[in-house]
Amino acid sequence: MQLFLDTEGRLREIKVFTRPTADGRGSISFRTFIIEFPFSRDIMIDPGKLLAVETVKQNKYLLLEVVDYLPLHYAMINLDGNVPKELRDEIMRRVEESWNSSESWIEVYASPVGYILEIQDGEIKFSKGYIPPLLGSKAKLFSPDAFEKFIFYEDGVNIGKVVNENVDLKISLRKAIKYHIGVFAYTGSGKSNLTALLVRKALQTIPELKVIIVDVSMEYAILLLDQLLKLNSRLITLDRLPNNDIDAGRRLIRTHVIPEELNDYREEIRKAFEKLYTQDKLRKLYIPPQGTLYLTYGQLIDMIRNQVDDKYVATAQKPFFLMLLQQLDKLMRERKLTKDDIVDDNINDLLSEIETKAREANLRENSAIFTFISAIKSYVNQEPVTTEEYDIEALAIEALDSSQESPRLFIIESPNMDDARLIVSLLIEQIFMRRKRSYSSTPTILFVLDEAQEFIPFDTRQKDNSEASSNAVEKLLRHGRKYYLHGLISTQRLAYLNTNVLQQLHTYFISTLPRPYDRQLIAETFGISDSLVDKTLEFDVGQWMIVSFKAALKEDIPVIFKAENNLIELKENLKHG
Ligand SMILES: Nc1ncnc2c1ncn2[C@@H]1O[C@H](COP(=O)(O)OP(=O)(O)OP(=O)(O)O)[C@@H](O)[C@H]1O
């Protein structure tokens, strides 16, 4: 395999740019390398291409990614308005004629990607790091074959084409999902299309995976309609269910966003919706009016503290309440429980132990401590209320069911954000609780949250349920991996997102983000240069930059690609389905 292309350039200069960080608290520097290549009108140097330059260490090269380039002509370097007009015109006329001469070159701007390439006895090795390059030394362009071999996993899933390389982008979807995914782009850049594509490919290639999409914009039932039909699935709504298949077809067509490109497919879509009804895949989700119905460890601790502080509780009982707190703390540490976890019968032994001790101390039978303990005991030991309704619990049970015939794709539709936040918080908590109670690595569950800034906002408020959803999503992203629970979140405004969670996402897909703050934040979080992130401003619809940290790609190098259009396979399947 040819590692480098024949075209070579030379490293002329390194410039360092420093700017304040997005939060204004510090500063950050980026290096831009300036490399000269021979002038050619069909030069293969486009943004995203990889270059290797010699470093001060023998056989070691620094890897750079092309950000931009500019053809330059020596005669133009000092040409400005000070030169008399006639002379200027004459110079420019001559330059126009002599671009293909020794006076011209292509100036390439590139950023280091944090890698060293070592070539020893024909063996090639990548390692992370930075070694100062040798000015004046050669810069070599990676061949497409080398690009493919070193950056992508051989058995990766193809999700598009690398821009300017004629190479398929192959990613490890399994790893990407394992370490959570972020999709960041302005409205209309193709976020939903890419998300649907990733979900589609993941369901096709990871048999133990289940996907739960919380859809506030009523898009995914269409974007994944063929998958809803093909797989065992659920399309879940908070509204009354339709009475028959005809009613279902009409209603669903009316309530969903149909992309323009699918205008010719309205009939197929209506029929597919009718079929979902006859396949018994529609469900109405019941949410209890009082919202959360569970006692969490945090709430229990508060209740005990109130007893300790209560001046009407006899002093003799207070040590027992304190003991209860200590034992709870021990249990929570041992079982790695958080304040948001739901209290279950795990705490029975602990309650009995304190009860016995209180009895041994001869406390009166009607003491507050006995009443308190027995109330908590009867709460945790109560029989679950069984209802016919499809509620969060039923949904969680289906999602965690590892049998072949259980549903794999769940789309929960809730255009009302408050409801959506409540569903997200209850569902994540419920699934966590069940997974912790009976630990299993299957199925793996991926939660997909569009408009993530609504679920994990920068500012949370209790009354619109954002505090609850924020806690739940943060827990999913921080601790989910241990429990085979994962997240894909997408947003158009990073500024409104609780950015603490960004570090938890190891694979980012970025397209056009018009606000500088959003781009700067991405650049800082992933240590990629501003100029590379700024490239996304020029992206066409469906064009993305994937940045991964030890996840989707073999090496953590930002790659610019054009995503496959999710609608192509959808149309194909609707036509033949
Ligand atoms: N990879 C792609 N190839 C071709 N067309 C695409 C691609 N991705 C998106 N599109 C088209 O671009 C348009 C916008 O895409 P999409 O709805 O996914 O954007 P979005 O970012 O989710 O927008 P919004 O935030 O408004 O939902 C759609 O018509 C879609 O079909």
From TrEMBL:
Lineage, highest ranks first: Archaea, Thermoproteota, Thermoprotei, Sulfolobales, Sulfolobaceae
The organism of origin for this protein: Sulfurisphaera javensis
Pfam families assigned: DUF87
The protein's name: ATP-binding protein
Gene Ontology molecular function terms on file: 3'-5' DNA helicase activity; 5'-3' DNA helicase activity; ATP binding
Keyword Nucleotide-binding part of the UniProt annotation: yes
Record-linked SUPFAM superfamilies: P-loop containing nucleoside triphosphate hydrolases
Keyword Magnesium: no
Catalysed reactions, as listed in the record: ATP + H2O = ADP + phosphate + H(+); Couples ATP hydrolysis with the unwinding of duplex DNA by translocating in the 3'-5' direction
Keywords, ordered alphabetically: ATP-binding, Nucleotide-binding
